[in-house]
Request: fold
Amino acid sequence: MQKSIERIAGESEGVSYEFPLFRFAGTDKVAPSAYLQAALHAGELPGVVAIDALMPMLAKAEAEGRVKGDITVVPWANPIGRAQYHFGEHQGRFHLGTRTNFNRGFPLLAAPDVALLPDTTLGSVDQRLKTRLVQLSLGHDIVLDLHCDDEGLAYLYVHTSLWPAMADCAAAMGVDAVMLWSEDTDGTFEGASIMPYQNVPDEVAKLDRRVATTVEYRGILDVDGALAAADAEGLYRLLVARGVITDTALPAPSPFTGVVAPLENIDMMPAPRAGAVLYDVKPGDRVAKGARLATIVHAPGETDGRTEVFAPQDGIILTRRSRRIIRAGEDLLKLVGDSKSADARSGTLED
Ligand SMILES: [Zn+2]
Reply:
């Protein structure tokens, strides 16, 4: 395993950002290669600790000559966001300098060729970081971007061109659900990892062996040793299932039995009033149409001071907010409905 340091030039003299990069060299040049990164949203740490638990497993496989495909690991993908504190609170989702979401604005290339990347020498520092992350990841057969939600189940975003071929990955990782998407107008990292393969010849696209996914490892507070160990096992099983690593001791994979739904089925449930949220449901709960999801206490103690929110259709609760203060119009939760949401928001994945 080789460690190197990536450097991103800042926007003024004397400022730059660094993050470590780890490379395991595969012994078989035709084996699939893998790229893993965590904490693109810099405060989302379940993936960081999962990688911490995975690295010794990769090192052992390497020592035993079982790493077949090249593996690149970036445990802290966002040194800019990692250093952003605002009035004592960490702010890892948006770049404070440009107010841009760190998981938006990635270049969506027409083909998987880094020569097509824009020149960001004179761009903003977050653009330089994004260009570099695409440079590092593009061309790998497997690209995993580890995130987490507010409070939630473990789930994946997967482009429709990779489903159901990626069902083995979902099973290997042990996630609860898979959200299928087809359009990326905003330039997510996942979009930058899969859109370049949509309009190229099959022998370049190799969609049957390609993996690109945003992994949502539950909630922001689910940074836990036991979960990290389990998630590392899941990542390892995926790498074995796809032939990046060989391990004859692993049991045969079982089929994926979790929830699979298109993004159009998600009801986001905007809060009708501002106030304190009393939830009736938590991630993983199955709800029927008409069930109460939450009560907003907007005028405590007053007549009509509470407003209730009900399920618009049958489904499963995927996520909810980790904080209990809410403004009118902010989304309360994600309900994955059994059919298309009447309020379906067009566009990209929500991470
Ligand atoms: Zn995220």
